[in-house]
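> call design_seq(struct)
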């Protein structure tokens, strides 16, 4: 970790409330409402060969998430799209990660913050796959999380909101300390839900099964991979999956902007063998986001 470059001390430009600022000047005050009360929403996007995949879908979800969090982003989808493109171009990036973030500012402190200004920033940087390619192809190892995804009556689960990731950080750290790549979380009812930052798919007898996203984020990558599977004629079943079923599946993979499509080799004591369907969808996804690239072998 000695060579870790902190995110506040880098070269480049960040789009901040309509202007491209030097990276180190894009700052907020310690009494910013979002820092204390998690009044923030964000997106994770990837650019491939300079083009941001499904950009407008991400921008729309950012706006929709802010509305769920009871604030209005003062920019349109088209304006947010352009800000994202401008950041990628200004930083001379081609393959990169893009992070739009909207939050309540420092005008008010306390639970109520209706008079706080809403800010929007967009940053982009070089960030490879969430999991190294050699690790992805043989499958990553997951453990079981302790925390569960909350009841929709208790949290704004349809927003990509900062506060919903507190338990994900805890579980990701717990998994890494135990030698795993990530953790599989259950929902408040004890059903299989998702990983700390990715959706999960399980395969049995040539059919893909995936949890119904009724209390967690229905990922853009998740929907993309479902469409790719159906285009291949593979049946996809969205349903409640119980943890005791995990041993009945032969393949497993996870999806997300950061994870892309990543096969899984084990979840706790259960073992899986990345095979034809996982490999085909990994190849299909990479061909879709980067048409010029050679499909992953």
């Amino acid at each position: 970790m000695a060579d870790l470059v902190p995110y506040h001390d880098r070269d480049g430009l960040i789009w901040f409330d309509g202007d491209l600022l030097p990276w180190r000047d894009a700052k907020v005050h310690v009494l910013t409402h979002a820092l204390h009360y998690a009044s923030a929403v964000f997106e994770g996007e990837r650019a491939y060969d300079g083009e941001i995949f499904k950009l407008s879908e991400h921008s729309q979800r950012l706006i929709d998430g802010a509305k769920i969090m009871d604030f209005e982003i003062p920019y349109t989808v088209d304006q947010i799209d352009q800000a994202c493109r401008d950041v990628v171009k200004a930083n001379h990036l081609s393959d990169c990660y893009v992070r739009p973030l909207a939050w309540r500012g420092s005008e008010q402190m306390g639970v109520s913050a209706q008079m706080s200004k809403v800010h929007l920033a967009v940053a982009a940087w070089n960030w490879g796959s969430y999991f190294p390619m050699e690790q992805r192809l043989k499958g990553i190892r997951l453990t079981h999380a302790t925390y569960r995804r909350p009841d929709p009556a208790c949290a704004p689960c349809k927003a990509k909101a900062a506060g919903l990731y507190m338990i994900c950080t805890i579980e990701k750290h717990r998994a890494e300390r135990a030698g795993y790549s990530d953790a599989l979380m259950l929902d408040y009812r004890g059903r299989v839900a998702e990983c700390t930052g990715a959706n999960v798919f399980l395969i049995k007898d040539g059919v893909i099964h995936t949890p119904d996203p009724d209390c967690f984020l229905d990922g853009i990558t998740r929907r993309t991979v479902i469409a790719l599977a159906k285009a291949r004629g593979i049946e996809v079943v969205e349903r409640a999956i119980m943890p005791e079923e995990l041993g009945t599946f032969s393949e497993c993979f996870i999806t997300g902007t950061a994870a892309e499509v990543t096969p899984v080799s084990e979840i706790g004591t259960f073992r899986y063998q990345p095979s034809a369907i996982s490999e085909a969808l990994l190849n299909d996804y990479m061909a879709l986001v980067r048409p010029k690239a050679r499909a992953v072998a």
